[in-house]
Amino acid sequence: MADAPPTVTPDTAPAAAVVLDRLTRRFGDVAAVDEVSFSVATGEAFGLIGANGAGKSTIIRMLTTLLPVTAGSATVAGYDIARQPGEVRRHIGYVPQLLSADGALTAWENLLLSARLYGVPRREVRERIECALVAMELAPFAHRLVQGFSGGMIRRLEIAQSMLHCPAVLFMDEPTVGLDPVARRAVLDHVAGLRRSFGTTVVVTSHYMEEVEELCDRIAMLSHGRLVALDTPAALKARIGPRATLDDVFAAFAGAETEGEEAGGFSDTRRSRTAARRRG
Fold first, then answer.
1. At 193, is the pLDDT very low, low, confident or very high (cuts 50, 70, 90)?
2. Where would I find the H helices in the chain?
3. What percentage of the chain has pLDDT greater than the value 90?
4. Are 32 and 252 in contact (CB under 8 A)?
5. CA 105 to chain CA mean position, Å
6. Type and span of the H or E element at 25
7. Phi/psi of residue 82, nearest 5 degrees
8. Stated pTM of the model
9. How many helices (H) and strands (E) does the chain have?
10. What angle in degrees, to the nearest 10, is found between the helix axes of 246-254 and 233-240?
11. Which domains does the chain have, with CATH numbers?
C-alpha cells in the first residue's frame, strides 16, 4: 500500500447534473464540509465515501436544500440550491438514511401521499403508483400496512416514493443500511434498473465498499470535510497497489472503518437507521 494517499485528480465530468463549487458548511468553529468542489455527469452514479463524520450526509442535506450553505455554491439539475430551492426540490428524489415511510399506512397510501407532495398531476397519479409498485416488485403488497414489511421491502417502497415524479437526480443516503444481504441485493438491482430505464443520475453514500464498486461510476473520497480523492473505483485501487481492494482505498484515504447493521422488519429498520444517523 502507498505510504500516503495520492492527490486528487481533476474532475472533468461533462454535462453535469450536480456541480459543487467550494461548498462549505460550518457548525460553529467546525467545518463539516470544507470547500468541496466536484461535478456529477448526467446519468452517472456517483458515490460519496468516507468515515463517519467525513461530511457525506451534510453534503447530501445541502444538495437537497434541507441544510443552508455557509459558503460556496452548488447547482442541482441546473438550479442553484440557495437561490432556487423550490426548483431543486421539484427535480430531485431523496431517499434519506432515516425511515421515511409511514408504517401506519399501506404502501399505496404512502405512494399517494408522496405523489401529492411532489405535485404529480392528478390524472397521472394512479398510473404512476401502479408502475412504481410493479417496478419495485411491491404490487402484491400494495394494500398492506407498511409496519408489516421487511426492511428490504420498506427501502424499495421509499425508492418508489422518491421516483414518482421522475426526478432528474436521485439522492440516496445509506440506501442499504440495516438490510440483510438478500434485501441489499434487491435494492441494488432496482437502482440499476432505474438507471437503465430512465437515465437517472444517482448520488449515493454508503459504507459497503462492494456495493459502491458495483453501483458507482466514480467515487469522491472525503476525510474531515475535505475532498481527498476523486476517480473511478478501478483507478483508485490502482493507485494503492496491483491487488488493492476498495476497502484498502477506504483505509488509505479515510483512515477509519465502520460496521454495518442488520435488521428485520419495520421496528428494526427504524432503530438501525436512527443509530446510523447518530453515528454520523
1. confident
2. 56-63, 85-90, 107-117, 122-135, 151-163, 181-198, 209-215, 233-240, 246-254, 266-279
3. 64
4. no
5. 24
6. strand 16-27
7. -90, -40
8. 0.81
9. 10, 10
10. 70
11. 16-279 (3.40.50.300)
